[in-house]
């Protein structure tokens, strides 16, 4: 998205009429979704009927007999459960320019998404998908923020949108279609949705006024921070919580440069505006008084943070929130991927979102089972509260019985539909039959930390070997305050017990001495932030450098721990 998007209808974020139209659209989409909860099964049937009718005459539709399918059972028999690799040959044909492959609608762009292998996926994005599946949930997702914190829309610069990353010359597929992240797409220009520009996308830093290389992501982040310190920011939008966690670190990393440029009126060394010595003196006083500056010092009227609040972030966000200010609210971003949405928070629930029953046909499978083409699946009404499930969805945009690789937990039911929270990737760590998932380890970590009154700023683990050559997990632990030897020993014992409780495979492997006891390696408090910056410095977009619990790659582990361990 670009700032021009906010003006396609002649209005900008500074215009009250534009703001009111945006609020009306957001609340209307939320109301429509809530109304759909009165008949979730009916909406699921209609989604299936619509995608079958629309795409029956595509190459994929003919190959799988879409025209003969009438029920969900027919659908299950005709189409296998599949991940990206299963659909990749079809997607590549579409990306090369062939029409009518997966959808009757021509893809306008291809979203990029880094998979577990690190390869960049090509997710076809069609106008029909955007209108039917994407925009309704996308608008509704902002409702809690603008309902309860209306001042974030008071000015264009009231929101620091960290994920907004417009690009002038996007990479393309073989057919010339843009192959970009969702945060780089101008939805107004591409899909005729001028209101879709997010809060913060017409701030002074949204389109940088000085030259900077497209892949110089750290420099772009610096330039936006340097501009934002002269504004009264009320909200930070990050989606990826690692980006939000990096912000206080970056303020201190770049502090002297930021203050000097404010004083001189420069931006990235270029003349920008009149010098602002008064603000520079104020910033200097903050640093002198507090020693280490926090966002709360720079923006004392901060109100809300909008990002994913589960997964590894659940360990560090409660303490991180304090760095942004007392009383700052954490609002969860949708349970969604580049491929499509699953859940969206319609109120201020801290972690969970309601199933978007109008967006896709949703199926779920036991998270502890391996996904196969004929894996038995459950419908939304069959899910049990407190259980973890693989997410499988089908939508009109050409992804059919697609296992997105995310595991969700059913928190409760609200208005007749499950509310879901993201618990991690479905990837298994399985050195000795333990079959550990992200969710197992995260819940065990939370239990072990709470029992000792301990906190972590972040953590990761890998399989190593003990002195007997037995596989065992080593945890890299970054805490804000030092742990004593006794605390560490007690924590590791509690973690071992908690892992055995969460995972029968782990319990059996430990009982049968196929797996050794976990060990810990204490890191510098900023070790994970150093590592995050190192990854972004290689040219990876910040939105795609996410928290990763299992880190078996030796080079990645060394980068994280080298010089940081104790």
Task: Give the tags.
566 residues, alpha/beta, seven-stranded antiparallel sheet, four-stranded parallel sheet, 19 helices, 19% strand, globular, disordered N terminus
Structure in a nutshell:
The chain has helices at residues 16-36, 40-55, 59-63, 72-78, 84-95, 127-140, 143-148, 187-191, 217-228, 241-253, 255-264, 277-290, 295-298, 313-324, 438-452, 485-502, 504-511, 527-537, 554-561, and strands at residues 109-114, 120-125, 159-161, 179-180, 235-239, 266-267, 270-271, 304-307, 329-332, 335-337, 340-344, 353-355, 361-366, 388-395, 399-414, 417-425, 458-465, 471-478, 519-523. It is of the alpha/beta class. It has a 7-stranded antiparallel β-sheet with strand order 10-11-12-16-15-14-13. Strands 3-5-8-9 form a 4-stranded parallel β-sheet, with helices on one face.
Describe it for me?
Helices cover 37% and strands 19% of the residues. The chain contains 19 helices and 19 strands. It has helices at 16-36, 40-55, 59-63, 72-78, 84-95, 127-140, 143-148, 187-191, 217-228, 241-253, 255-264, 277-290, 295-298, 313-324, 438-452, 485-502, 504-511, 527-537, 554-561; strands spanning 109-114, 120-125, 159-161, 179-180, 235-239, 266-267, 270-271, 304-307, 329-332, 335-337, 340-344, 353-355, 361-366, 388-395, 399-414, 417-425, 458-465, 471-478, 519-523. A hairpin with a 2-residue loop joins strand 6 and strand 7 (270-271). The longest helix is centred in the N-terminal third of the chain and has 21 residues, at 16-36.
């Amino acid at each position: 998205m670009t700032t021009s998007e906010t003006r396609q209808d002649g209005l900008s974020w500074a215009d009250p009429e534009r703001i009111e139209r945006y609020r009306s659209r957001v609340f209307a989409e939320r109301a429509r979704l809530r109304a759909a909860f009165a008949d979730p099964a009916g909406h699921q049937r209609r989604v299936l009927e619509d995608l079958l009718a629309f795409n029956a005459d595509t190459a994929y539709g003919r190959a799988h007999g879409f025209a003969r399918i009438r029920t969900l059972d027919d659908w299950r028999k005709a189409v296998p459960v599949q991940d990206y690799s299963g659909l990749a040959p079809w997607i590549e044909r579409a990306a090369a320019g062939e029409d009518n492959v997966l959808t009757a609608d021509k893809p306008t762009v291809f979203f990029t998404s880094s998979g577990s292998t690190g390869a960049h996926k090509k997710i076809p994005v069609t106008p029909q998908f955007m209108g039917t599946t994407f925009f309704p949930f996308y608008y509704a997702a902002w409702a809690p923020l603008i309902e309860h914190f209306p001042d974030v829309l008071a000015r264009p610069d009231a929101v620091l949108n960290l994920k907004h990353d417009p690009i002038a010359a996007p990479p393309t597929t073989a057919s010339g279609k843009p192959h970009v992240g969702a945060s780089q797409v101008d939805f107004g220009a591409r899909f005729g949705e001028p209101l879709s520009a997010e809060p913060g996308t017409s701030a002074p830093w949204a389109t940088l006024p000085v030259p900077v290389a497209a892949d110089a992501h750290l420099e772009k982040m610096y330039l936006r921070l340097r501009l934002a310190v002269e504004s009264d920011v009320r909200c930070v939008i990050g989606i990826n919580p690692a980006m939000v966690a990096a912000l206080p670190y970056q303020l201190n990393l770049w502090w002297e440069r930021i203050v000097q440029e404010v004083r001189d009126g420069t931006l990235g060394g270029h003349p920008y505006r009149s010098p602002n010595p008064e603000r520079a003196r104020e910033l200097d006083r903050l640093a002198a008084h507090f020693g280490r500056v926090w966002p709360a010092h720079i923006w004392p009227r901060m109100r809300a943070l909008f990002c994913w609040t589960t997964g590894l972030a659940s360990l560090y966000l409660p303490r991180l929130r304090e760095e942004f200010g007392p009383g700052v609210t954490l609002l969860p971003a949708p349970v969604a991927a580049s491929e499509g949405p699953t859940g969206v928070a319609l109120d201020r629930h801290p972690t969970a979102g309601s199933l978007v029953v109008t967006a896709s046909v949703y199926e779920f499978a036991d998270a502890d089972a391996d996904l196969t083409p004929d894996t038995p699946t459950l419908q939304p009404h069959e899910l049990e509260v407190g259980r973890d499930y693989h997410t499988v969805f089908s939508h009109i945009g050409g992804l059919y019985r697609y296992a997105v690789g995310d595991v969700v937990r059913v928190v409760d039911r609200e208005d007749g539909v499950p509310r879901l929270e993201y618990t991690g990737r479905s990837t298994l760590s399985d050195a000795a039959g333990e079959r550990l998932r992200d969710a197992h380890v995260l819940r065990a970590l939370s239990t072990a930390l709470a029992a000792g009154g301990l906190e972590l700023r972040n953590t990761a683990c890998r399989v190593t070997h003990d002195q007997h050559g037995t596989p065992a997990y080593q945890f890299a632990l970054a805490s804000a305050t030092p742990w004593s030897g006794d605390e560490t020993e007690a924590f590791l014992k509690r973690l071992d017990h908690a892992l055995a409780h969460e995972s029968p495979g782990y319990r059996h492997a430990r009982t049968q001495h196929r797996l050794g006891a976990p060990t810990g390696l204490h890191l510098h408090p900023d070790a994970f932030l150093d590592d995050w910056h190192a990854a972004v410095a290689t040219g990876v977009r910040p939105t795609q450098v996410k928290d990763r619990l299992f880190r078996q790659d030796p080079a990645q582990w060394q980068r994280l721990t080298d010089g940081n361990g104790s």
